[in-house]
Specification:
Elements (H helix, E strand, L loop, with lengths): L2 H5 L2 H38 L2 E7 L17 E3 L1 E4 L4 E10 L3 E10 L8 E6 L10 E2 L11 E2 L5 E11 L4 E9 L4 E9 L6 E10 L30 H11 L4
Parallel strand pairs: 3-12
Antiparallel strand pairs: 1-2, 1-4, 4-10, 5-9, 5-11, 6-7, 6-10, 8-9, 11-12
């Protein structure tokens, strides 16, 4: 019996049909998995696309008004500031997924009349160059930053920003504090696919610090900073003028 004769037998025809059906089923499963499950997983990841931290800079980089410094940079989840003060606060966003966003909105939850707010963009990661300090509404540089009626600061550029997995967004703001309290930080990252948010940062406003700042760097877990970074008191009444004088040198 030749191969052509075998291929035309009922048994062989049935096997070929089953194989074709199996291939079709696998193709359908892959398509459904890609369209539904993978997209759902990405949608979930984009709801919180970054991990946020405040940065206590190394003392050789620049001054930190609210925390004692050493020769290492430290990343923390909560900081303590004096009431009725202005202070530069540095932060980073570590990207957990690749995504694109149109702006970064930073604000605090709480009573609009009592909670802190960012009055200007002040990125001391930039030592020299454009964009270190941006004042919303400044007609000289015609920037697109603005503060909304709920005291959220919006960092907007001319075009969308694309971030890769593992990249780090460095930012900083001059924060104005008012009444004492614990204020959760909310950071929104609106983009073409979905708006992601960060909720796990806090600023405590009080005269005497009661919350210990703890470094979250994995390589620092056995160092004293992992237990507590000592708070530093600054002169709130004169800090605003001194920060303006020193702001241009990063």
């Amino acid at each position: 019996m030749s191969l052509s004769d075998i291929a035309t037998t009922p048994a062989a025809t049935g096997i070929i049909a089953l194989a074709g059906l199996f291939v079709s089923f696998v193709s359908l499963f892959v398509a459904i998995h890609t369209q539904i499950f993978v997209r759902r997983r990405r949608h979930k990841a984009l709801l919180s696309p970054t991990e946020g931290f405040f940065i206590v800079p190394a003392k050789q980089h620049h001054d930190c008004e609210y925390a004692t410094q050493d020769g290492e940079s430290h990343k923390v989840k909560e900081i303590t500031l004096l009431p009725h003060s202005e202070v530069g606060v540095d932060m980073i966003l570590e990207c957990k997924v690749a995504f694109a966003h149109n702006e970064i909105a930073v604000g605090f939850l709480g009573n609009d009349a009592a909670k802190p707010y960012a009055k200007e963009y002040f990125n001391r990661f930039i030592e020299v160059g454009d964009g270190q300090r941006v004042v919303p509404g400044d007609e000289k540089d015609r920037n697109t930053h603005y503060i909304d009626k709920h005291k959220f600061y919006h960092v907007r550029g001319a075009q969308a920003q694309t971030r890769s997995l593992g990249s780090v967004i460095a930012a900083g703001f001059t924060i104005v504090t008012r009444e004492p309290g614990l204020y959760p930080v909310r950071i929104d990252l609106p983009g073409d696919e979905i708006e992601g948010s960060i909720w796990h940062l806090f600023i405590t406003v009080e005269d005497q610090p009661t919350i210990a700042m703890k470094c979250m760097f994995t390589e620092h877990r056995h160092m004293p900073c992992a237990t507590e970074i000592q708070a530093r008191r600054f002169n709130a009444s004169c800090h605003s003028s001194s920060s303006k004088e020193s702001g241009g040198d990063g």
